[in-house]
Specification:
The complex is a heterodimer of chains A (about 375) and B (about 350). By secondary structure, chain A is of the alpha/beta class. In chain A, about 30% of the residues lie in helices and about 30% in strands. Chain A is built from 10 helices and 13 strands. In chain A, strands 1, 2, 3, 4, 5, 6, 7, 8 and 9 form a 9-stranded mixed β-sheet that branches. Chain A has a 4-stranded mixed β-sheet with strand order 10-11-12-13. In chain A, strand 8 and strand 9 form a beta hairpin. The C terminus of chain A is likely disordered. Chain B is an all-alpha fold. In chain B, helix 2 crosses helix 7, helix 2 packs antiparallel against helix 8 and helix 4 packs antiparallel against helix 12. The model of chain B has no long low-confidence stretch (mean pLDDT about 85). Chain B is globular and about 60 Å long. Chain B has a two-stranded antiparallel ribbon with strand order 1-2. Helices cover about 75% and strands about 0% of the residues of chain B. Classes of the chains: A alpha/beta (about 375), B mainly alpha (about 350). Chains A and B meet through helix 1, helix 6 and helix 9 of A and helix 3, helix 4, helix 5, helix 9 and helix 10 of B.
Chain lengths: ~375, ~350
């Protein structure tokens, strides 16, 4: 009997894998176009989708397809059933890019991704601020690279420059459900950075965060506001900043929140930095010089935080998830701690500290003028 | 084990396997709905409730006649008329539960993998397989359970290991104040999904020794609680409580999202296929319980009963709930409520009444 049961179960394991269509139950991977990026535009009342394959699949150049429909699902279905050589397959889609004319399609896009048995909630979400997704995807495509590579690079590198953080569809859904607003990374088309022959015509550049509220884009944050939001959400990663001839890398920046009995929300940001370029000739080994530099860093971060809070206030949205951070400051919530304030409309007490902890191999300026110690002393003054 | 008997540990591993289907179907939703992010803490009171319940049941069954199954005990407790009526009512409930398990299993396959699948075809295949297994020997079914438990255990460990990097501690911490009532409801949900093990006392006459052993029962409950913990932490920790609450099958959405170094990804179809094993064990066990009921009432072997019951459950599953909304409503409210009344009300009360009557 056991053998019979096992014999009955084995074909189930093989046949119920879900890979197959109604006719053959088998699909050759060569007959599939693995869509890596899905662009969404709106034209003449129709939703236009543009799909790009990745360049790393079988070392083939990326292909770009397009289709239109009355709804996003129909446009995707038309793309899937279009008369291309292979069937468009969305199980490996990594990025969804929504053009400026189609921002109102964003809720539909989130719904489609959540409902789909192919796409994942881990798909990166981008909003394009200029042009169309189709133009960007076509202009970024060449034999060696494509829009998918560029968006992947944005996701990887943007936090390092304090330019943003790429949120997934799951992150956005979760934020909308938890606090009624969410952030989405914006991008725009820029001249190509690669100058070699056969390079693409354009590349992708990061913009500020778009703030979603009440099912629509309520505003776009400036670069400074975006950097402040990242600091408050503890999303900054080794941000590099230039300060009057000295370039520092923020190796750590941690924001802490607490609700005071007075009704204020106390925000403390502690940053650690390393000097990566010292063109101003400041003697970093000297505590006084270092304190001046640290103050400059703290003021820069303070400005970013203030602008982020001001933006959140004007949008009446807890875009930086401060409400939840306050709640989590006392996770078990036994008696004694102050109640959580309504974040939009609250007053803040801000404290930012910065510490330069390292300058790599060179503590003091390199004596480029041949004056040795004298150069350092001058710089100190 | 002699004469086709199974050990009590084997019986408990069958019960654990059978509980996995309800665990992934109901638990993430119930935890997210009632307890929010920190609902995994509800497993502590759940453990307490289960410990007390196992202790109580072992006390109730301690001085029972060895070798008498739950059906026999219930029948003896109420006398020939009331006892038989209670057994028939419980049998009817188990038949309805079989129909629901078939239908919800099919719904999961359609929602997660076979979007164009035919419910009747999948349901008939599952019912036929379960009926074939329930028509044979219990020892064979227990043996298959061991294999499936190993397979599902390995899949569970793999899924947890791959999903762990996506878990955000922030999603698992409670909001400002711990919602005690929410935690209690979550604990009840966990106890409810694991309480399917009580029905396996029907097979007490097939075990050696032929009585409830609290040790293996507690071990099975602990394994079930750990499975609940893994499922709750992974789904709510990755997807957050509000999103988990909105999804029909959050555990499979979680598996779909797993992506490690672009090497391990998109294996949810295989996991879902393997997970059919948990449904298979629950269905086959329920049909076997109905067979044992018929045998208790008629006093002779009733091998065709599983096939007849499977056909009836298949037809009922198709007729009663032809849309997914009805299945989800049943899954979230009606089925758990009836189950809790039966497991924590009807069965212990009947056993208690029987024990008192015996003393007199």
């Amino acid at each position: 009997m056991r053998r019979r049961i096992l014999l009955a179960l084995l074909p189930m394991l093989l046949l119920l894998s879900g890979c197959g269509d109604r006719r053959t139950a088998i699909r050759d991977v060569r007959d599939l176009e693995l869509i890596s990026t899905l662009g969404v535009d709106k034209r003449d009342g129709q939703i236009v989708v543009t799909a790009s394959t990745g360049t790393d699949v079988g070392e083939k150049p990326a292909k770009v397809f397009t289709a239109a429909g009355e709804s996003l699902a129909l446009a995707v279905e038309h793309l899937r059933r279009s008369y291309t050589k292979g069937e468009a397959f969305f199980a490996y889609t990594e990025h969804v890019l929504i053009g400026p004319d189609a921002w109102d399609v964003l809720p539909a896009a989130l719904d489609l991704v959540t409902r789909s048995t192919d796409m994942r909630l881990g798909v990166n979400l981008f909003l394009l601020t200029e042009g169309t997704a189709e133009d960007l995807m076509v202009n970024c495509q060449c034999d060696s690279t494509g829009v998918s590579d560029m968006l992947a690079a944005v996701a990887r590198e943007a936090p390092r420059f304090g330019r943003g953080h790429v949120f997934t569809c799951g992150d956005v859904l979760s934020a909308l459900a938890q606090r009624g607003c969410a952030l989405v990374q914006t991008v725009r088309q820029a001249p190509a950075e690669e100058l070699s022959e056969g390079a693409p015509k354009a590349s992708v550049e990061t913009g500020g965060f778009a703030v979603l509220k009440d099912g629509r884009v309520a505003g776009i944050a400036t670069r400074e506001e975006t950097a402040g939001m990242m600091l408050l959400m503890n999303l900054s990663e080794n941000q590099t900043v230039a300060l009057d001839g000295v370039t520092v890398e923020l190796t750590e920046a941690t924001a802490r929140f607490d609700a005071r009995a007075s009704g204020e929300i106390a925000v403390e940001v502690a940053a650690a930095a390393t000097v990566v370029e010292n063109a101003a000739g400041i003697a970093v080994s000297d505590p006084d010089s270092r304190a001046l530099l640290e103050r400059k860093i703290a003021l820069l971060l303070l400005g970013q935080i203030k602008s982020a809070l001001s933006r959140a206030e004007s949008l009446e949205a807890d875009v930086c998830d401060i409400g939840r951070s306050l709640a989590l400051a006392h996770p078990l919530g036994f008696a004694g701690q102050p109640a959580v304030r309504d974040v939009p409309g609250a007053t803040y007490s801000l404290r930012v500290t910065a510490a330069i902890t390292r300058t790599y191999d060179v503590a003091d300026p390199v004596p480029l003028t041949g004056q040795g110690e004298k150069g350092a002393g001058n710089a100190k003054r | 084990m002699q004469n086709g008997k199974i050990s009590f540990s084997q019986l408990m591993s069958m019960a654990f396997l059978s509980a996995l289907g309800p665990v992934i179907r109901l638990l993430p939703w119930a935890f997210a709905r009632f307890g929010g992010g920190a609902s995994f803490l509800a497993l502590l009171p759940a453990a307490g409730i289960l410990y007390i319940f196992i202790y109580g049941m072992s006390r109730l069954l301690r001085r029972g006649k060895p070798g008498v199954s739950l059906w026999g005990l219930l029948r003896a407790s109420g006398g020939p008329v009331i006892g038989t009526a209670v057994c028939l009512l419980l049998g009817l409930w188990l038949l309805a539960y079989t129909a629901f398990t078939l239908r919800s299993g099919v719904e999961r396959l359609i929602s997660c993998v076979y979007t164009e699948g035919k419910p009747w075809l999948l349901s008939t295949v599952m019912a036929a397989l379960a009926a074939a297994a329930a028509s044979g020997r219990l020892k064979s079914l227990a043996g298959a359970g061991r294999v499936l438990a190993l397979l599902l255990g390995a899949v569970m460990v793999l899924v947890c290991a791959l999903a762990l990097p996506g878990v955000r501690v922030r999603n698992l911490l409670p909001d400002a104040r711990l919602d005690w009532s929410g935690l209690l409801w979550s604990a009840l949900a966990a106890v409810n999904v694991l309480s399917v093990g009580v029905y396996f006392l029907v097979f007490l006459g097939d075990t050696e020794p032929r009585t409830l052993r609290p040790g293996p029962a507690r071990l099975a409950a602990l394994a079930g609680l750990l499975a609940c913990l893994a499922v709750a932490v992974m789904t709510v920790g990755t997807l957050s409580a509000p999103v988990t609450e909105k999804l029909q099958f959050p555990f499979f959405v979680l598996i779909r999202n797993i992506r490690e170094l672009r090497i391990a990804e998109r294996f949810e179809a295989l996991v879902i296929a393997v997970w059919v094993g948990a449904d298979f064990m629950l269905l086959a066990s329920l049909l076997f319980m109905l067979r044992r009921l018929a045998e208790t009432l008629t006093g002779r072997g009733c091998r065709p009963v599983p096939a007849l019951a499977a056909a009836a459950a298949n037809a009922a599953g198709m007729l009663v709930s032809d849309d997914a909304f009805a299945v989800h409503r049943l899954s979230k409210y009606a089925i758990p409520l009836i189950n809790i009344v039966v497991v924590f009300g009807v069965i212990p009360i009947m056993l208690r009444v029987g024990k008192k009557a015996k003393k007199r």
